[in-house]
Amino acid sequence: MTPPSSQIYIDGTFYAREDAKISVFDHGLLYGDGVFEGIRFYKGRVFRLEEHIDRLYDSAKAIHLTIPARPAEVTEMVLATIRKNELHDGYVRLVITRGTGELGLSPYLCKTPSIIVIASTISLYPAEKYQKGLILATCATRRPSHDSLSPAVKSLNYLSNIMAKVEAIAAGGEEGVMLNTSGYVAECTGDNIFVVKKGVILTPTTGSGSLYGITRRVVIELAAEAGIPLREMDMSRYDLYTADELFLTGTAAEVVPVAEYDKRIIGEGRPGPITLQLMARFRELAESTGTPIY
Ligand code: PMP
Are residues 261 and 150 in the same domain? Predict the structure, then answer.
């Protein structure tokens, strides 16, 4: 639960939760025009903070938005917000909105982008899901491809992911698999996807239409370190149905196993040995590295 005393950073000032407000003319609200990051901190250190800040600036650049601060300053805003809330373990939502403008699409009438930092706690899935595995279902809504708004942009417009999540839940899933417009697997509504087949880890290429996930990158590093072969390739639902193991990665989800997908039991129907190994290594890494907060 979020402590009632939480302090939210908006454009240089901390506000109590109930007073943390932005204009109804902000294009972040009117059009979903803006970018964001979800960042985790463990035991007083922020995990992969530099990579999150880099991706934030890349997302902003791609949508032609100039963040009104330098990366080192935004980094300090994140750390200061965690300190202000006296937290050691939790989640940060860093949001850049286009700023206050007019009732027209043009972003060029918006004066200054707003920078918002919320430090809180998060638990995406209940603890038992990490022991038993999630249930997935295929969504009808396709992940927009690179000829549309690039799926690499972590934008404030998550409606297609939200529609996909609605479809996954309607189909009895806890998370949904999103395909790209060619019918290949892109990712889940809020996580990247990996499978294990005959000792090899496989994951869709970023070109398939996924976010360039930071946890995905960590898992690729951990696999290399452990000497487990890994390939990035085009993957279909068939590759997921017939996997020995299936797991998802994301900042909020971390590494989470999957037990069932579209009513097919995956492997033995419980987390497999490579998934368990990566979950353990991920936890060790997350709890022993990162940018010190205090
Ligand atoms: N895909 C989507 C659509 C996401 O929103 C996220 C983040 N929740 C991810 C993948 C995972 O990315 P990361 O590991 O960088 O959090």
Answer: yes
Contacts (Cβ under 8 Å, ≥6 apart) of 229: 199, 200, 201, 223
Domain final residue pick, 70, 102, 120: 120
190 and 135 both lie in a single domain: yes
Total-model pTM? 0.96
Q: Exactly one of 21, 111, 154, 165 is catalytic; which is it? A: 154
- Does residue 291 form part of some domain? no
Using the predicted structure, report yes or no on whether residue 5 has a pLDDT greater than 80: no
pLDDT digits (tens, 9 = 90+) for 41-56: 999 999 999 999 999 9
- 115 and 238 both lie in a single domain: no
pLDDT for 189: 98
Residue 77 has pLDDT above 70, yes or no: yes
CA of 250 to the centre of ligand 1 (A): 5
Atom 9, ligand 1: which residue's CA is nearest? 191
Q: Are 142 and 164 in contact (CB under 8 A)?
A: no
CA of 56 to the centre of ligand 1 (A): 13
Q: Residue 39: which domain range?
A: 7-120
Lookup: tokens for 143:
């992940």
> Per-residue confidence at 225, pLDDT binned at 50, 70, 90?
very high
**Per the structure, how many domains does the chain have?**
2
Residue 292 located in a structural domain = no
Ligand 1 contact, 176 CB (< 6 A): no
Residue 16 burial class via C-beta count within 10 angstroms: exposed 0-12, middle 13-18, buried 19 and up: exposed
Active-site residue, 154 included:
yes
